[in-house]
Structure formats: C-alpha cells, structure tokens
Amino acid sequence: QETRSNEESTDESEEDESEEEPKLKYERLSNGVTEILQKDAASCMTVHEKFLALGTHYGKVYLLDVQGNITQKFDVSPVKINQISLDESGEYMGVCSEDGKVQVFGLYSAEEFHETFDCPIKIVAVHPHFVRSHFKQFVTGGKKLLLYERGWMNRWKPSVLHEGEGNIRNVKWRGHLIAWANNMGVKILDMISKQRITNVPRDDISLRPDMYPCSLCWKDNLTLIIGWGNSVKICSVKERHASEMRDLPNRYVEIVFQFDTEFYISGLAPLCDQLVILSYVKEISEKTEVECCARPRLDIVQPLPESCEEISSDALTVRGFQENECRDYHLEYSEGESLFYIISPRDVVVAKERDQDDHIDWLLEKKKYEEALMAAEISQKTIKKHKILDIGLAYINHLVEKGEYDLAARKCQKILGKNTELWEFEVYKFKEIGQLKAISRYLPRRDPVLKPLIYEMVLHEFLESDYEGFATLVKEWPGDLYNNTIIVQAVVDHLKKDPQNRTLLRTLAELYTYDQRYGRALEIYLTLRHKDVFQLIHKHNLFSSIRDKIVLLMDFDSEKAVDMLLDNEDKISIDRVVEELENRPELQHVYLHKLFKRDHHKGQRYHEKQIILYAEYDRPNLLPFLRDSTHCPLEKALEICQQRNFVEETVYLLSRMGNSRSALKMIMEELQDVDKAIEFAKEQDDGELWEDLILYSIDKPPFITGLLNNIGTHVDPILLIHRIKEGMEIPNLRDSLVKILQDYNLQV
Fold first, then answer.
1. For residues 212 and 9, what is the distance between their CA atoms, to the nearest angstrom?
2. Boundary of a domain, candidates 443, 473, 505
3. pLDDT category of residue 234 using cuts at 50, 70 and 90
C-alpha cells in the first residue's frame, strides 16, 4: 500500500475523537492504479473474486489483481467506458462505451462479439452463467433495453425488452431476473416467463437522472436494493399464489424496507443484514458561503421498516473530491470477502471489515491496554499482526508513564510470566525511576528465579529507606534467592549506626538462621525477648547452646521455658537447671513447682528446698505440696511453718506427726474456728479429742451452738448438755436441741 499523507488519509473520520470504534478500515488501491489515474480517470469498475476490471475516460479497460497491479490492458475505444460486466466465472467480459461500441469477449478464448450503435450505450450486462453454451445472452442499454441471444449458426439475435421511457441508466442481472432503471423508475423482468413483474417509480423526479443516477444491487437472488436520490427501497421478489394468478405474472415484488437518507446516494452494497451506502455530500463553505462538494461518506445502516439506524459513518478524503459530482462515484463490492470499492475519477479506495488485529489497534490507539490484552488472549490463534507479549509490555509502560507503579508491577506477573530476561529488564527500569519497592512484592521466587543480584538490589533499596519493608522481604523470600553473606554484612553495617534497632536485630537473627549460624541468632532473639526463640531452639535442637542462657529464657517467658526444659530433660538435666537458677530462687521455684506437678518423685532431693521456696513465693500451694509430697522432712517443714506462723500448715504437720491435741489446741486458740475444730475431731475420731473440744468450748456460747449442731452423731450429747452452766445464753438453743433429738431418733 502506498504511504498516505495526512491530507490524503482515507480513514480520517469526522469523529476522530469518538469512543465509537469504526466498523471498516480503508486503504487506497495503489500500484498500477496510481499510474493509470495519474494520466487517465476512472469511469467504472467491476469486481470479481479473482480480479478487478477498471474502465477509464480514455476508453481503456485494465484487469488488475486485488493489490491494484495491472495484469492486462484492452484498448476498447477512444472515449469513456460506461460499464464493464463479468459473468460469475470471470471468463467473459462485456464492455460498452460513450461512442456506442459494445464488445462481449472471452478473456481466455477467441469468442467475441462487436456491435456499434448510433447512440451512447450506458450499460451492458452479460448473463451470470454466460460461460455455459445455452446461456449466451447479454443486454445493452441506450435508448432501448436490448437482449442479445446467440442462436443458430452462432449468430446473435437482438430483441427489444423495453423502450420509450428515456435512456436506460443501470442494469443488474441476477439468476433469472434482470433489473434496470430508466428515467421513470426501476423495472424487473423474469427471464423464464419473459414477463415484467414490477415497476418501482422514482420518488424525486426533480433530480436529473443523468446527474443523480439510480444505484441497483442484488442482495441475493430474490432481494433487490434500490438507491435513488436520497431514497432507499429494499424489494423482495415473491411467488404469487396460484389462486391469485388470473392474467398476472406468477411473481410479484413487495417493498419490505423504505427510508430516506440525509445525502444523495452514489452506491449501495449489502453487509449481512445491514447496508453499506456511499453518499455524495454538499456543504456550505465557511469562507465563501457558497455550496461546494464535500468529502463523500460511507455509512453502514441497519434498515428498519420505515427508517434506518446508523451504525457507523466515515467521511472519506478521496483525491479530487472537490470537483466530483454524484455520478462520478461508484460502489462495488466483493461478495465473499466483505470488500467494498469506492471508485471516483482520480481514486479507488478499498474498505474492508475490521478484523481482530484492527480492533486491537484501535484499543491501543485509545490506550485501552487492558481490553487490548484481553482481546489478544481470546483471539491469539487468529491474530497475525499483534503479539500478546508486546501488548503486555506496552501496557506496563503505559501504567508506568501514568505513575500507577503498583498496578504496573502487579501486571508484570501475568505478562512477563517465566521470561527471566524480561523480568530483569523491567526490574532495572523500575530502578531507574526509583520504584524498586513497587515491584518487590511481585518478583518471582520459584520458577523462574532471577539472578541473585536482582534480589540483593531490591533488599539494599529497602535497607536504605524502610527497615520494616526489608524485614518483611527477608521473612517472605527464601534464603537461597540472594547471597546471604552480602546482606548480613549490609545489616551489620547499618546496626553500627543504630545498634538498638529491634527490626534490624530481628532480621539479622533470621538471616543468621538461614545461614545456619543458630548460636548467633539465638543470642539476638534472647536479647530481643523474641517469641520465635523457643521455636528456633526446638527446630534446630539448640539445647547445648542454651545451657548457660536458662535465666534469660525464664525471664523472657517462664512458662514456655519451663515446659521446654521439662520436655527435654534428657538434653538439659534437672540438676543443671536448678544449679543455673540458684541465684534466682523465684524462677527456681517456678521450675521445681511445675516439675512436682508433673511427677511427685522426680525432684525429691529438692523437696526440702521447695518448702522454703513455697513459703517465700507461693504460700497457697505450700499446704497441697506438704500433703502430696512423701519426701519432705516434716520436722524441717514444721520449723519453717512455725517460724512464719503458718497456722493451717502447722496444724496439718502436727496432726501428721501424731500430735493431734496440739493441733486441735492451735485451731481453737489461733484460728478460733469451731467448724474446723469439729471437722478435725471428726477426722481423728478420738474420744479424748472430743473431751478437749468440749472443755475448751463450754464457756463460749457460739462454740456450744456449733457443738450441739454437729456432735450428735459422734458423741453422746448428754455429756455436753450436763456441763452447760445454768443461766448461760446460747444462740439458737431450741433449734440445736430439736436437731439433737432428731439425730437421736434417726440413730435409734
């Protein structure tokens, strides 16, 4: 295709900025056509699926390939070629010219017909199946419509089909139907019955038929499209029912769609169920205020019963449009490929339906990269011009230019896939614009893996400006992506400036862990009192490293530390732990207490020590310990409890050592708790104890009430009642006596 300058661009639309995507794309037919039209002017053209035939004002007919290259040339006449007709096979051509010459000849055979009339012949149409011997027919149109048929002895016999209504302006032959236009309207002839089946009068008789000729086009064998002036009619040929025949033709025509257009029609063509209309446009010049010729328009419309809906509209910058008239434009089309040829004296433009590549071009032009990428992925087998990767890279660049760095980085994952070279290129690009951080989250970590330098570069970027981000990357990235030693050294250098930075210390510990320098990692974790310290010890079996760090671990989280130490007695013995905690008795107690809970016998050698620890740090658990331990020395325990005046513990120890009377005395005197005293007496079940209890209680009315309520089932209540002094007031005496009698009856 020839390079088009701006002023000659044929796909220039009046709505360049429109968001509406055009339906057609345009190319100027160049090569041989350019040469022809520099010296001559196009007058007509016909299209076959294999080639094109172009007629000129100087009487030449050129056969062209679809690129516009000349394959054959015929000198037919010295004056303008009015029409060229081809049969369906493309083997026979009919040509007529302004000087009355008509020629029908075979392109690949010597068969030929010549005739010269005494008036200009405007149209010629050969039978669609002219190649077959029994269809050797063609029609010509000047003042009459003549049918030529080849008969006996290969002679051509003419017959008049129609005359008397002015010049025949256009003719189109399809199957058994011939449609033609004269000054009065459009007629259709059925070649089987040789009957005329319709007459469609023209609407605007004020227009000169030679200046605004009729456009005819068969959509299929039974549908004729008529365009004349600014009126469009779509006619359907139908079979008449037998009952309606009488003297009428067996076919009739129904107008199924009829509508007017804004401009004068120069040509028509079908596109599926839509119409392509070439329009001649006049407008008022802004400068001179005189009516002048504007650029012709190519519209796609959807016919409706009485109107039409515009689907698209393009104004075409054809060469010399300022001098052209309505009759100078023609629209021809190639049925199989949806190709439309706009013919004007100095230009031939080809319009074709836009394919997926064109759709993607338009999306890219409108910077709709996301949609372009999606369209390319859906049609990746059919697109020829575009590559998904190229669109993707353009999309990333577009996002970067807009400053949407995070979205650009996110799209890299999908677009770059496993291409390490492209990944590395994009990373350097992000580095140049100072946006390494944006792409860091999306860098591949497995399949593919980039060069270590890439990851190190990103880590250094974070280390310079964002310690938290640096720590997150170290945690998320596998340690084998980069050279650990280099990063460790960089962190150590930063810690020299800020030695107490917890984030850097924590990250350094993680780096040491990747590097299997667990001892160093452990030291940092312990200094930081980091929760991962226990996980680290367990995971890497670092018990030998913590023998001298037990106090640190206990200080950090005594519960977790004790559980860990007890779970791993085989690695760190009980004796070692107790020894390490010697100077921290409160921690020693926590450890030994939990050990005792797990197993009463394992730490028996420390039970004496534990009495003091419980007394000092955990009084509530002392009594349960004394009860459960079978290894603690009772005398030592009694001494400690008496020193600290622990009454309950002393009572328990005295009773356990057999000194029940002293224990009871302590309950009565120290605790003054009659219920506890009675409970104790019940437990011992000793008559002498009860006697002591009664003697102690006899002058204390509240104690007497307690005894009266509880004594009945253990000792004869009479013993107590006899001893109560006359006149002593005892609370709730009546209730107590009733209870004694009830208990007595129950016992009887």
1. 27
2. 443
3. very high
